[in-house]
Amino acid sequence: MVGKDCYAVFGYPIKHSKSPRIHQLFAEQTQQVIEYTAQEIPAERFGESVKAFFSQGGKGLNCTLPLKELAWAFADITTKRAELSKAVNTLLIQDDDRILGDNTDGCGLITDLTINHGISLEASRILILGAGGACRGILAPILERSPRQLILANRTRQKASDLAAEFCLFGDVEGSGFAELKGQQFDLIINATSASLNDELPPLEDDILAKDGVCYDLAYGNRPTAFVRWGVEQKAKKSLDGLGMLVEQAAEAFFLWRKIRPQTQPVIDVLNAARRFVSEVKGE
Ligand code: NAP
Description:
By secondary structure, the protein is α/β, with parallel strands linked by helices. It has ten helices and twelve strands. The model has no long low-confidence stretch (mean pLDDT about 95).
């Protein structure tokens, strides 16, 4: 690893990761010379692979599914937001050789919602679907915006209640099952379930989205996800997927590593153009 500073994303599977492209675009834009690779690492080889990467001079790592909790446990020190989410998506080696773990997912979502799409969280009635790792990472930053109402609904109701109880010191948040949502309306519905990965939709009533409401799916793909399509059917003012969040969390990681903040919109535009091409020409 002589010459370029080396970075990588570890995950399993990792073949379709957009992170190498995103970080290469950031590097070109900010005139940084880096190498960023995607490496398929099974959970049982995670610890040894991270040690090998850094001992060979690697500067920073991203960790994605299913390795974020392992990265949290592995890091020598963690930021407050990583501690709250009990998951780490960014590792960096410090001058004293200790490995710092951070989680940039929550701030990536907030930046995409509020800066890129001009959505105000403060006065909103917000519904989050799901109570897994991604939900844990976005709860505190959303509650810090003091929404008018925040409900967490999950298929396994107990997980939503437990998570709500854990985060209630940041603001009012209530756990729920899907059936109990009947008759309620929300200005912003965030899909933090993994249902879209199987082209499935959580069970939602047709009148649950308020007029001019917004839908946001953390998942993304080359074609609109099941939840994004549902939002369009519900006449959402905007029905968005998580590509912007992906780029924003990457920008925050890039900033941690390189101390330079790249512009994200040009990169989002490039990725959007690329997926339009894949979807139209290749039909994926
Ligand atoms: P996870 O920890 O495995 O949690 C999955 C959640 O989805 C659980 O709450 C589960 O409910 C629920 N679920 C799964 N299938 C469902 C279905 N058919 N109907 C209703 N609920 C269902 O996954 P995660 O790490 O939180 O990831 C969630 C999503 O966020 C994934 O799509 C991931 O790609 C996305 N994500 C995107 C970004 C980004 O940068 N855009 C970053 C992080 C995550 P139960 O508890 O009942 O099983």
